[in-house]
């Protein structure tokens, strides 16, 4: 997404620079104030679920799509990556970079700029340096609540590449457009020439206050497509400042679920779709996998009791140790204090386990204060892979967990 950059900028950017630097809210430009209000309003309208869940790459709901083995390695690395790479762990970055290199060596579609497959709307899933842009630009790219889209239309009387920041279906979007031309089989040249906000609550567009004609070379850049999948669903691009971008047209089904969780919209529908797809593949018995699993979402309505939420597994991590049949809930409280609850699990039937939780405590360092808490319930595995697990547990609550102790583990 070199359109995510300006030629003389210190890094690859999503948008052209605001006309004034940010030094405090009182000094913000009209654009920056408007953007801040939009961001705060959008986030403020989001209904929280039990805990402040982690944010994940935001994608529009689209039809399910399959990927090759090498492409799927990249998809696996992207699942659970926060802020489109902004908050990725070193291991996640390593996994993504390795998978990107494999695909670039395969090359994909020859001369991608000459292929019709490059045309259309692309969702930004990952970028290697989203934190090096200006504060407003960094907010747009790094916040999963916003959807970031690139449109590529080269085969028209007015060839263009555009970037769109979609705040929400109810608020609107910011669209930055550039005149585009093809240099060779993989490079697109572009020059920004117009941009505007489109708010649902206004009958007109609000101009993005940047004088593109006066920016000269700073409004220009280029974008290399280093991999375009034969299916036309996955693209890897590098901008003129070296930043790497991973974009998709159609979204892998687990990413759709994470998107639904991040926006708190259509989660149950996404869960049903994932489970149905899993069943259609005819995969048999699944096992409770060992490791650390972060609770992302549950169907339980939030209660007033923090302790009750923690004791029922509605917060924090779940740690599974198969060698001794141990299950543990661990919740960070504050100032080094943790809530811990330990129990055991025994397989009772296909995809089901009997769980007994009977050892709870508030822990600080090597010391613990015991609590009189306990419960017994049946844990049913509805879906599980190396990254995501869906279960039905205590009081028939449905849970979605994400594995946090590494990637590509078996």
Automatic annotation (TrEMBL):
Statement: the UniProt record of this protein carries the keyword Plastid: yes
Protein keywords: Plastid, Transit peptide
Compartments, as annotated in UniProt: Plastid
One Pfam family this sequence matches: PAP_fibrillin
A GO-annotated cellular component: plastid
Domain called Plastid lipid-associated protein/fibrillin conserved: residue spans: 71-247
Subcellular location, principal: plastid
Domain of life: Eukaryota
Family to which the UniProt record says this protein belongs: Belongs to the PAP/fibrillin family.
Record's protein name: Plastid lipid-associated protein/fibrillin conserved domain-containing protein
Organism of this sequence: Cannabis sativa
Gene name as annotated: LOC115718410
